[in-house]
Amino acid sequence: MSSRIAKLFASAAVALVTANAAQAETLVVVTGGSENMVDYVTDYLGPLFEEQNPGWTVKSLGTGPGDAGSQAVLEKLTAQKDQPTWDTDVIVTNQLKTAEMVTEGLLQKYRDQIETGALVTSDAAKMALGTDVDGYVMPMFMSQTAIAYNPDLVQDVPTSLEGIKTWSEANPGAFGYNGIKNGMSGVAFATAWIYAFGGSDPKTLMEGPYDAGAEAGWAEALADLKTFNQSVTFTPGNAGTLDMLNRGEIAMGPVWVDMFYSWQADGRLNPNLKITLPEPGMPGQPYYYAIPAKTAHAEAARKFIALATSPEVQAEGIVKKFNWYPGIDAQHLEASMDEASWDKLFTDVTPADLSEKAKPFPLGPFFTDLMDQYETEVSN
Amino acid sequence: MISSKASLLLIAPALALMAGLFMMPLGYSLLWAFREEEAQTWGIGNFLKAWEYYSADILFSLVIVTLATALIAGFSLAIAGYLTLGRSGWAVTLLRWLYRWPLFIPFVVAAQVMRTFLAKNGMMNNALVELGLLAPLQTASYLDWRGIVITFVWKQTPFVTLLVAGAMAAMDRAMIEAAQNMGAKRGRILLGIIVPQISRTLMVGLILSYVTMMSVLSVPMMINAQQPTMLTVDMAWRINAYGDYGVANALGFIAYLMTAGVAWIYLRGELQTRGGAA
Predict the structure, then answer these.
(1) Cβ distance of A178 and B225 shorter than 8 Å
(2) Is this complex scored with an ipTM above 0.85?
(3) Using 50, 70 and 90 to split pLDDT, how confident is the model at A313?
(4) Which residues from chain B sit within 8 angstroms of residue A64, using beta carbons?
(5) Is A233 left (phi over 0), alpha (psi -120 to 50) or beta?
(6) For labeling, which of A43, A131, A137, A225 is most exposed (least CB within 10 Å)?
């Protein structure tokens, strides 16, 4: 290499290094969730943070829906465990895996260090499927599953899981869900099935203590579910259920309420479709913001989460733009919201429905047993 | 002429790459299928669990791949046979031009194409309805085991056809012409004269296809939301949802045994032929 070219390269390298230093820092946000959650950080929250904090860039990464997406985050953090600093600053993960991360010491306590920490009082901010996560998490939003249906094809809308069972037997192939491997709405349906037909009081499953004896009636319920599965259509995912409903290939199926309303608002879903929350209820879950134990940017991470859980962002971003139920207490949002946007969330599923029939997922060990038994008894 | 030492030296980098990037991970995976992480022991626990959870999927994979292989054999012989014996010049040219297309399409794209093609309201059913062959209510989705088989067959047939047609083209045509002169029909010539001579090439193509199909994740994942499903999906599921590498490795081991079975049949045949010739 001639010395002229070498000099050119050297100066270019110096320019690059100094530019990087001047450019300040990057905040890495890793999201385990469906596409809409990644969009939320990429399109809305990230740019907002960058605007308020000049010099910062938010890099957002999605690891996919369901347990699998959050498991990927868990594995990423575990792999870096022995490093002095980790490359992930903020994570957004589901209850089951966040609880595991707290137990394994992969997260740091931060809620009392941010001003919005006091705005959350719900149980979901303290307990995740029976594990104490108090202080380690801020709920990003609450989401709920429900049964979506096409009123043109379903005349007598079933109001309970028992009703869905009978309806599906009379209309083979018209009920669709995504099993347990293709997203959480299917898992939610299987859970609701156990709440309804599992024999024991669902309260035990949700609040504990864990007792394998409470699973006595599961075998029969799961055998029933196996029979039920003979008359349903399997869909390729949370989005797949909505797609098939939209194309009229199925008439009814479990969906996430937020996804349902967002798709309808975007014109991606038949505006006539409706949702209902059947007896005895279906589970929902929050997704959590958490900070990995050894992040290099803890302060910026706290700032980011404080912004994300501020009443204004919760009102504008979570409720209005993305149709989720807020992660912080709803009373703090009233000042920032117009009534119409608020009411939109409660068109089909009323607040009374929610307080009566919105359930959490069962405790971690029950949940794992349920997934295991579904695989051995129902799908194999 | 280079010495054998020098030639060893020449292939050493390739061998090292094979050993490091292929043989070592494979050996590691096969070995660790027997590791029971929770109990910190070695044993067949992962295999018992794999069978308890996924026996239906193991059988399903076997049936799907075997069925697809059989269909590929039929189609590739039909296409290659027509390329060799077909009398209509333009039909042969068109076929020669068309059949290779799926070769250039990756599995994941093929799966996506089939998803829009085979859905209940997909292109295939719409076309049939438009042609008046089906009423809209009679349409059915093929996005289940049939979809997997169709995609596999569509994607792998050109590969086997390419090999088989090549072997057919290399044959001495005298025997075919003699049979034609004696008045033999084309089907009979194909099955009685050509196929026995190219059967080894056909076997190689089919075994390679079998192994390839066994390892595809995108097609069953994207096309078949039903139960049962193929082993690759279960392996991805065990790793992604549970971080359970033990059972995933055990499933991999089982898939390996299934392909090894085919390889063994092939090798035995090979040895017998060679033994007979020697």
Answers:
(1) yes
(2) no
(3) very high
(4) 240
(5) beta
(6) A43
